[in-house]
Specification:
It contains five helices and twelve strands. By secondary structure, it is α+β, with helices and mostly antiparallel strands.
């Protein structure tokens, strides 16, 4: 049986094909039907990192999802060395499958510097201890799903997730758009700083889009909505220790025109704000034929 955490780490070990040209595995991680958005974000960031001096860490990335990724084929990552400055380095990455762009990303990298510091405090929510993990929650709804979808629904994932105050899968009530979950991957212990950043980039796409559905009492499980990430922005504020618990605090200030806008703040368990996230996604009602 494949260890999903080990599989995710292997996904990040992309292959160098030529100068500024890399290849990543398309299958694995969160989904089997199509490539998970966080998967291609993380591999793109790793491709960019392979071309950046070791004294610079990513502080921001901005990306667009253009086509669904096919898990049956590898992904080619082409890196453009847009700028190498005295303090900042900029890279543009294009992800390609079957000769077409499926994703593109710009990322900026910065040398370590001192400056003023402040942050918003971490929300006061229940800690991860005593909160059911994702596998436990899903097992309670497995009988409602026919095979072969049931097997994929229950399949072990690489990242341990514990949702604070989870909603009912089958009949979620209309709820506040604020959403909290804890995540970690213990297999990340000892990984280098760049891999830690890529793992957080992967996780930053988890459950974020669902925040825009909460006020409307719907979710993907019901088959009432077509969802897809459209764009994604991530700001990295501090070094990451992904083997330790992090709180993902999410909300959705707006939805309309079949799109939802979502924000996230990621905190280490000690309260340090380590990353901020923003994303717009497709929230298209499924019409009965």
């Amino acid at each position: 049986m494949i260890d999903p955490a080990k599989e995710l780490l292997e996904l990040l070990d992309i292959e160098t094909l030529d100068v500024d040209l890399f290849r990543g595995v398309g299958v694995g991680g969160e989904t089997r039907a199509r490539i998970f958005g966080g998967h291609v974000i993380a591999q793109s960031l790793m491709a960019a990192y392979r071309t950046v001096p070791t004294d610079r860490a990513c502080h921001s990335l901005h990306a667009y999802f253009m086509r669904p990724g096919d898990t049956g084929h590898p992904v080619i990552y082409q890196v453009d060395r847009a700028r190498d400055g005295g303090s900042f380095t900029t890279r543009r990455v294009v992800a390609i499958q079957n000769g077409k762009q499926i994703f593109n990303m710009s990322a900026s990298f910065h040398v370590a510097e001192d400056g003023w510091e402040h942050q918003h405090p971490m929300p006061d929510v229940d800690g991860p201890d005593g909160v059911k993990n994702r596998a436990e929650l899903r097992s309670g709804f497995a009988d409602l799903i026919d095979e072969p979808l049931r097997s994929d629904f229950l399949r072990a994932r690489p990242i341990e997730i514990r949702t604070v105050a989870p909603l009912d899968f089958q009949n979620p009530p209309a709820a506040d758009d604020t959403n909290y979950l804890w995540f970690r991957m213990q297999a990340a212990k000892g990984c280098d700083a760049r891999t830690q950043h890529c793992l957080l980039a992967y996780a930053s796409d988890l459950d974020l889009l669902g925040s825009g559905l909460r006020p409307h009492g719907v979710n993907w499980f019901q088959g009432k909505v077509m969802t897809a990430s459209l764009d994604h922005a991530l700001w990295l504020h501090a070094p990451i220790q992904f083997d330790q618990w992090h709180l993902y605090s999410m909300d959705s200030p707006f939805s309309g025109s079949a799109r939802g806008f979502n924000r996230g703040a990621i905190y280490a368990q000690d309260g340090q704000l380590v990353a901020s996230v923003a994303q717009e996604g497709l929230l298209r009602p499924m019409r009965k034929k």
